[in-house]
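Quick one before lunch.
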Amino acid sequence: MEKFGPIIRNAAEILHGGDYNPDQWLETPEIIDRDFELMEKSGCNTFSVGIFSWTALEPAPGKYRFDWLDRIMDRMAEHNFHVILATPSGAKPAWLATAHPEVCRVDENGLRQPYSWRHNHCWSSPFYRAKVREINSKLAKRYANHPALSGWHLSNEYSGSCYCDLCIDRFRSWLRERYGTLENLNRAWWNTFWSHIHTDWAEITPWGCSEGNSFDWKRFNTVQCCEFMKFEVDALRACAPDVPVTTNMMGFFDGLDYWRVAEVCDFISDDVYPGWGIEPDVRKILAECSMRHDMHRSMKNGKPFLIMESAPSATNWQPGHRLKRPNQHKLEELTAIGHGADGTLYFQWRKSRGNLEKFHGAVVDHVGTEETRVFRDVAELGALYRKCGGICGSAYPAQAAVVWDWECLWAFQTSSGPGSLEEKKYTETVQTFYRALWTKNIPLDVIESLSDFSKYRLLICPMMLMLKPGVAERLKAFVAAGGTVVMSYFSGYEDRDTNCFLGGWPGDGLMELFGIWNEEIGGIPAFDRQSICYEGREFDVSGYAERIHLRGAESLATYVVDPLYSGNPAVTVNRFGAGKAYYIAARTGEEFLSEFLGKLAADEGLEPVIPADNPGISATLRSNGEEEFLFLFNYTAEERSVRLPEGSYTALADGSARSGVVKLPPFGSEILKK
Ligand code: GAL
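Model of the beta-D-galactopyranose complex:
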C-alpha cells in the first residue's frame, strides 16, 4: 500500500486551521495577539494568509509594504504553524482598476465591468499579468525560505469568463490551433446548419449559436484559467521552486474542467459548504461530500487532498442558515479525512467586523473568546487531529470507480434537448448511482472518462452522453480483460464535437460492447406511469426511458405498464471477452440501483468496509501499509450500534480498546485504528 508524502512543505500532521485575514485588524494589534492565543487553544496549525491582501501589500502603485506580513509570518513560525500564502490576484486594488480599466472583465453583453466585485479580472490583460507577476515575485522572493511558508494558494476560486477583444482573439488563436483550418472547424461545429459557415476566423465570437461554438468557449475558458495559473506559478517557482502549489476548487462547479486545473496543481484543495440548512437528509449531504472528496483524491491518483475552506458554523449566503447540530461539525470534517483528506481548514478564522462576510461563521466570533459552542467544536476536533498523525499520507484503496466528467456535463448543457436541462439531471443522476454503492460502504474512486480504467474491477458510467476519442476503445479493452462496466441511458450519443454518432447508439463501437441497439429515448413526464420488472419486483421509472433492442445481450429486466415500451428490455448484460457489460436503459430510483449495483459489487467480490447491515452508518478505511484506520459515521439523529469487523481496535479519540459492537451517538463519528 502506497504511503504519500506530506501535501505541504514540512508538515507531518493533520492540517487544521483556516483563512486568516490579519490585514483587517492592523489597527488593533491586541486582536492579533489574541488570535495567536486562541489559535493555540483551538488546536489549529495551518493558516491561509493574504488571499485578499493586495491593497494591504501594495497600497499605492509600486509602493509595497510587507512589514505586517513579515510579523505574521514570524509569529506563525514561532508557533510552528504552517502558512499557505496566497497570491492576491483574486481581488484587485481600486487604484489598479481605475488607472487601467482594461484589467476589468468585459461581461457577456460586451460591457466593460466597473471596479466592484472580486474574481473579475481579465484573463489576458498584459498589464494585469505584469502586476500579478510583480507582486507574486516579491512574495516568493521574500518568503521562499521562511520557515512558516508551506504552500502557495493561487488566487481564490478561479471562475468566470472575460469577453474582451483580447480574450476573444486568444479564443480564435486557440481554435486555429485546435482545428487547423476553417473547413475543419465548420465540419466539427456542423455549421451547414442555419447557414453558420465561417469564411474568416475574425467572424468567430463566443456568441455564435452553434452548439460546438458554445462548447468550445467553455473548453477555452479552462484553457485561459490554466494558462493564467501557470503564469502565476512561474513567477512563484522562479524563487521558491520547492513550495507546493494549489488553488481552491469548488466541487462540481460547472465553469472549469477541474481535471485540467488539477494538472497545474501539486496538490488538490477544495471548498466545501454542505447544505445543512437546505437538505434535511444527512445521508444525502454526506454522500454528496464523499463523492467530491473521492474525486479530489482521484485527481492525483490517490494522493491526499486538503479541504481549504469549510464553515465552522453556518455560512451567510446559503438559504436556511441552520446551525450545525451537536456532532455534525466533526461528522462533516471527518468525512473528508475518512475519504482521503490530510487536513480540513475553515473559512474563516475570525469573523470580520464589517462588510459582506460579517455574518459568516468563523472559529472566533465577534465576542472574541473561546467561550462559544463553535470554538469548542473546533477545539475538540483539533485535539482529535493531534492524535491522528499516523493517518497522514495513508491511502484509500478503491476497486470500483464512478465516472463524472465535466465535458459530459457541458454536453448536456449545450445540447438542446432531449427534454429540458432541468430534466436531464446529469450530476444528480451520477450522485444517485454513487450513493447506491456509498450506502453499502463500497470504496469508490470518482474519475473522468480520460482516467485509467485498468486498475478497477467495476466501472460505473452513468449518462456518458459524450464519448471523447479513445474512450469507447478503452472501455472495450477494460471489459475484454475481465472488467465489469455499467452504463446507463443517455450514453454514447455524441462525439467530442457534440455531433451524434451515426449507425446506432451507443455509438463509437459500444453497440458491440453492450450487445444492444438503442433505438430511441423518450421522456417520462409525471403524468405517465412507467416501471421495470427486475427479479419479480417492480421499480418505478421517471424522467427518461430508452427503447432498446437486444443484439447479443441478455435481458435482466423489462418494461411493464406503458404499452409502447412493455416487454422491451430495460436492463441488459453482455459478455464481452473475459468481462461483462451492463446497460440500464431507464432512470430508476435509488432503490433499484442499490439492489442492482449492490448485487453486482457482491458478485465482483468487492468488499464493503463494514457490512451494509449496519443501517444509518457509513464507513471508510485508510491504510498506510502498516496500520489501518476505520472511520465510522452515523448519519442519523439516533444513537446507532455498529458491529465491527473481526479484530481489535483502538479509538484514536481516547485510546480505549474496541471490538465487537460500538455505539455511535446521533451524528457521531469515530476513528478506530486496527
Ligand atoms: C468562498 C470564498 C471565500 C468566502 C467563502 C464564504 O467561496 O472562497 O473567500 O467568501 O466562500 O463562504
